[in-house]
């Protein structure tokens, strides 16, 4: 998969346009992805996507959005590091 471009509210992955948040897995894209609270990632948001944790990725990249306002619950960071 290749991210071709990104702008406020729009991401182009493999020539497909997404206007909602996405989760990019090695073999598919999960979209739209809605969190309980906008611009905040908590444990409930992660558990809503069981495939993400089942695959046990070595690296997870969490984008902070165009303006960098996404916050991550410290419990999420601790959990993912463990």
Give your account of this protein's structure:
It is built from 3 helices and 7 strands, in the order ββββββααβα. The protein has 82 residues and is an alpha+beta fold. The radius of gyration is 13 Å and the shape is globular. The mean pLDDT is 87.
Query: What structural class do the secondary elements suggest?
Result: alpha+beta
Mean pLDDT: 87
Order of helices and strands: EEEEEEHHEH
Computed over alpha carbons, the radius of gyration is 13 Å
Give the fraction of residues assigned to helices: 10-25%
Strand content: 25-35%
How many strands, which pairing sense, and closed or not: the largest β-sheet?
A: 3 strands, antiparallel
Shape: globular
The residue ranges in which pLDDT falls below 50 over 5 or more consecutive positions are none
Report strand order across the widest sheet: 1-2-3
Number of strands: 7
Through-space gap between termini: 27 Å
Number of helices: 3
What would a concise description of this structure say?
This protein has 82 residues and is an alpha+beta fold. It has three helices and seven strands; from the N terminus they run ββββββααβα.
